[in-house]
Amino acid sequence: MFRFLILAALLFAPLTTGFAQAAESPRTPQELVAELPTADFERKTEIVNALAASGHPRAGLIIGALGAGTLFSSADGKIVLQTSEDGKSYSDALTGNLISGLSEDQLTKIGVNNRLRRDLRGLSARLSLMSLDPQTRRKSAADAFTAHDPETLPAIEEAMKKESVPSIRQALDEARAAIVLQSDDSSQNDKLTAVNTLRARGDRDALNALLGLRTADSQTLRNAAAAAVKDVESSLAYWGALQNVYYGLSLGSVLLLAAIGLAITFGVMGVINMAHGEMIMLGAYTTYMVQQVLASAAPALMPWALPLAIPMAFLVAGATGILIERSIIRFLYGRPLETLLATWGLSLLMQQGVRTIFGPTKKPVTAPTWMSGSFDIGHLTITFSRLAIIIFALAAFSLLTMFLKRTHFGMQMRAVTQNRKMASAMGVRTNWVDALTFGLGAACVGAAGSMLVLIIDVTPPLGPAYTLLAFVIVITGGLGSMPGALLGGVLIGLTEAMAGLFFTPSAKSMFSFGLLVLVLLFRPQGILGKRLS
Amino acid sequence: MKRRSFVKAFALAASLACIGAATQAVAQQKTVKVGILHSLSGTMAISETVLKDVALMAFEEINAKGGVMGMKIEPVVVDPASNWPLFAEKARQLLTQDKVAAVFGCWTSVSRKSVLPVFEELNGLLFYPVQYEGEEISRNVFYTGAAPNQQAIPAVEYLMSADGGGAKRWVLLGTDYVYPRTTNKILRAFLKSKGVTDADIMEEYTPFGHADYQTIIAKIKKFSSEGKKTAVVSTINGDANVPFYKELANQGIKAEDIPVVAFSVGEEELAGVDTKPLVGHLAAWNYFESVKSPANTDFINKWHVYTKNPKRVTNDPMEAAYIGFNMWVKAVEKAKTTDVNAVIDALPGIEAPNLTGGTSKMLPNHHITKPVLIGEVQADGQFDVVYKTTGLVAGDAWSDFLPGSRDLTADWTKPISCGNYNTKTKTCLGLKAMH
């Protein structure tokens, strides 16, 4: 059996590109693998090609591990595979026997570069097209498509005959089409069918493959490809527009989160709070602290650190808000200029305070794995973190609106802001309502801050940029109007996203502030604001 | 009463004795003041604080060995608070009030540009430890970070090579200020000299602290689907890197397909980013913490002991600051004085070991020789070196790819003694054209 394998290696060897040495000196998989740690990148390419051709049952596994960075060499020259995520268990690369007593610091990773990584992806796809696990087969078919290595064609055709899952068959067919288009051996008809297959796929990768035909020899083929390109481009333009709207909405929801608390403190109470962004910072640092505590006390809960941090951030920022109102702001009601200066000073104090306690360097907050990555709807790419922010922003917004409209406290709040004396005469403790309202505003921003760590950095000076934008949104949307804040957030978000797309991201503020100026000129009370008497 | 006067007399005697002892100590141990001009608050504090710490560590190290020519170094630390005009004020204070012998400082190009006239007016000495855009020279400044030909150009050459993926189409992405714009101007000229057309170059800028990279990444994806291998060259600086890399990871842009090479992203910037989806993206520097050399191991150990934190990372500007300080010490010892003019004349030709196992040399153009390393991001946030220049590369202030600076060279040694000497017309352009 083994002799047959060597024979197979010999037969396949000359076919493999960049594979010169093995033809003269056939090597056993053992020898090949043992050479890996000392080989340079070029030699490594030859080794993995030889290994793939050797037909060794674990070749696919070894190649996959090399690409994933989980193949190591030990001090005594053993080549081992990491078999668990935590880096605690290892097995011998060729035999698969578990080796105990190895830890990460005794091992040296076998390095790869991007060129080798791409080759490895293609090779590993070729070797696992027939895998028993449908997920692996699906991934292999997708990798074979992007690698479009002519050597993989026989393996794909073989796999297509056996594949029972229609969607994987489809993926294999597309991978085959991508290879056929580039191959010189395929017939004209075969290529024309391939063009149609890719046209049906209709994404950027397909477009990429089709554009390669611009220099094809045959006129019919060039025309067919050009027609397909036009078709794919127009459908992509439609999806692209949808994608842009989604970007605008997702940016808008981030801004809505930043503005939601200000809609209460500034929009309803009329307090110009320049330390607004610092509440976002507090929320972000609370999230960091929760993650630190969980990491040492209850590592099992780590994936839920973020959902657990949100109520914590709500409480911390809320308490801070009440403290600020009771100690500073209540003495300054009716004196907007002094409030502005005092809260601005407070924001500097808070920034430097956090910098002194936590240091100036940014704090790592990692998103839970279930919140990273993306999925596709048609040709629309939706990232989980952005989707989470959109959902959270809308939920927070509706909860807050409900709270203001439907609860007893919400009613008292509105009563105090509409007519303080009358509310006081009716037995409402206006002082406490003020403090709690301000606290509620701060608490909402704090919760928003813990959500924003999904996309921004946790550093002391993260606040001021959001303070400014929040004011722009609340003023654009209309003072004292919750739907106004929603509309303002989405409008500014769309404006900035479009400006970034059609002009340059550097100019985005120009457009959002331009919008603010226009609104102030033609509707000074804001889009949904009530006319001031 | 008597008792009180006794106490008084004793106190007087004791204080006199103390003063005597003190003056004696001063006579024995002269000190030399050295300034540190790094932002310890504001947006740049995140990057600059470590440079203050590494300078203090180097001072301590020299003081423990007996100081420079027997003089202990006395650090004067000021905080310009990421405020560019304040940099100039603090520099003036260091040079006129504290009368420091040398200043180690600045990070952003705009802060360097702000202190330049002060150092030239008062004839000070500045060591600048960060990679920068070139096209500037001053007799009073020594640049120990990389010039564009020691970072940007080799990185792009690597991406063009077969090993780097053979990129044919380029995205030049940066933060909107002087360093990225000048670097991209040089890169565009370089790419054109290699036959890349304007249609294959996309240049894009984002403001400082930009947090929304969705549309940029979408643009890159679109630009890359034109049937040619595309690479991204990122000069994004500071805080904006984290949102950029997070979005890159979330949208699944793999290094094998569209590699991103960055010039301002080191170990420190990637702390806090989940790098598993980013493995294979690149950074070009002259130093990486992961480089295995005795000098580097020693440096990292000293750093961990000094900061009392075994997890503190090291980075490229720290190495440059460390080399700069060691060169200054050697130059003072060679000149046998801390006088600025004497030290400026003594510096060219001074050699100091770098941490990657070689020896860097100060050149007559006030730049140093450095190895160029290309590192790949690893799953643990460190960089794995995939390419290294065979020898050391000499820093060049005036890019060979820009029409205005092609013929210029800087040489502060006699007989030329000029920062912008035109080798064709054999004339010195003089102070006005230096920055």
Q: Report the major sheet of chain B.
A: 7 strands, mixed
Overall average pLDDT of chain B: 88
Rg of chain A from C-alpha positions? 31 Å
Class per helix and strand makeup of chain B: alpha/beta
Rounded to an integer, what's the Rg of chain B over CA atoms?
A: 24 Å
SS-derived structural category of chain A: mainly alpha
- Kindly report the spatial arrangement of strands forming the biggest sheet of chain A: 4-3-2-1-5
* Helix content percent band of chain B: 25-40%
Number of strands of chain B: 19
- Any idea what the shape of chain A is? elongated
Order of helices and strands of chain A: HHHHHEEEEEHHHHHHHHHHEEHHHHHHH
In the predicted model, the low-confidence regions of chain A spanning at least 5 consecutive residues are 7-24
Total beta-strand segments of chain A: 7
- Low-confidence spans of chain B: 16-27
Give the mean pLDDT of chain A.
85
The dominant shape of chain B is globular
